[in-house]
Amino acid sequence: MKVSALSPALLGLVASVHAASSIEYSTVTGYFLQDETATDASTFDYTAVNFGLINRTYPVDQELKRHGKDFTQWERFYHQVQKLNQDSHKDVEYKVLFLGRHGEGWHNAAETYYGTPAWNCYWAELDGNSTATWHDAALTDNGINQALIAHAFWQKEIDEQHIHTPDNYFVSPLTRTLQTANYTFSGLSLPDGSATFKPLIKELFREGISIHTCDHRRSKSYIHELFPSWPIEKGFAETDQLWNGVTAETSGAQDVRSSTVLGEVFFSSASSKRDAFVSVTSHSGEISSILRVVGHRTFGLSTGAVIPVLVKAEKVGEASATTAVSWTVSAHCTAPPVTSVSACVCPSSAAPVTTPLVTDV
What we know:
Strand content: 5-15%
InterPro entries: His_Pase_superF_clade-1, His_PPase_superfam, PGM_Phosphatase
Keywords: Signal
Protein name: Phosphoglycerate mutase
GO cellular component, one term: cytoplasm
Largest sheet: 6 strands, mixed
Helix content: 25-40%
Distance between the termini: 29 Å
GO molecular function: phosphatase activity
CATH architecture: 3-Layer(aba) Sandwich
Strand order of the largest sheet: 1-7-2-6-3-4
Radius of gyration: 21 Å
């Protein structure tokens, strides 16, 4: 495999791309409102419309009538997905991905306060200011509330819709996503036989890696101390090997990463087809990347929001042996910008540089 513009720390990541790239992903549309172009992402509220599940009939409904009972929309959809998997080739798998964005973090609040241009070219490169810390940002009170809204809605769907809760849970290693997953799923009254909430912490579900300190994860020891009962994937490094404060991941590089990690979710075990409902607690940029990889239309999520997507994965022939994955160097000010109404202008005495403002990486 040919690699360009990668640091040595990323070679292990790219080496794993070859296997994952032999899987093709596609979104199976017609099941969720979020699939439809008429649905406005900027005003959409997943809690007002049953996660967006469309009220419709399914081919499997005829078989369910034999049970002599009424099934909810989510129960019928669950059986429809199971039927799709039962009837599919061994190299085809269907999964429902519940992609949840973390609640508001202190980095989100800081970007709103300073404005995006100033945030990107100076403030985001710091650990925080005199009142807040946004290095690997924690949730604000508002962010906690957003996660609790998701918690309450999941419980409502369990109680009223008998929704099939996730068979597997995954979470990004950044603090805001760990907290969001905990507030969202801990303490739910789950149906008998449901999978226990013990999310697997996976490095590659993290946010797009920029030079911002909010994208710099803390140590494995810190994460384990925060949630000691949660499993951490094999090979997870003690310190962050991907963030360096100098180079930033391109969207193409992130899509390669997303394809790689999806390849670790699909076809993962003998029961993978049966375990078709998957929760991923992640970030806006990473969810956007996943949506691109699975061929879903662009659908931005507000903090704390969730989008379910029915995805078909198919193993195909051998992938190309050449993949180029590039990262970019980002310049930033060394002092607060003079102006940043529409663009960032550094002070004359603080010309843009490409070295980190935070040196402890």
